[in-house]
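User: Predict the structure for this protein chain, please.
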Amino acid sequence: MIDKKRVVNIFGFLVILFTLGLFIFSFVDYGVIKEVTERNLAYYGLPAIFVAVFFFDLFPQYLSGHFVLIISAILKMNMLMVTVVTIIAAFLASVIGFWIGRKVERSFFSDLFGKSMYKRMEKGVIKYGKWYAAISAISPLPYIPIIFGAMDMSWKDFLIYGVIPRLVGFIVTVLFSYYALGFVLNFSGFG
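Assistant: Here is the predicted structure, written as structure tokens:
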């Protein structure tokens, strides 16, 4: 008989290890991620935007979906379609990440840190987590829906303080990059 808890812990460990490795790699050599993203956006268009934003929002990166939006504006893509695809991808990544955190990571973190430390961390997330979710949703801080789910943040708080600000932040980024880029290019004589 397969021990379900052991399988969940192994899967959780692998997800955390992958996420941590990717996060470190994005700090060490973000130029590679940036170059691959730019090239794929230019070549594959909207499907590449969906995959990139989904990936960046599911696994914490130095780069985020905001970067994809700015590159899309530079490439003069249809920003309405880019915004719609970005919002769908970010929403799905947030929901899936939160769900993974709820189902898989909770037991992993509890085993990793010990039950008493986990409970203290969980209380901190319940007390202050919504504010970190809001700040990370609209800033360069890592946006980590898996952690929010694992630390038992309520779905309502995650939606209000994480998902909605994230989506609004993307819309603001699109507007700013579209209009600011046009202004800068016209002002510099390249537009």
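The chain has a mean pLDDT of 79.
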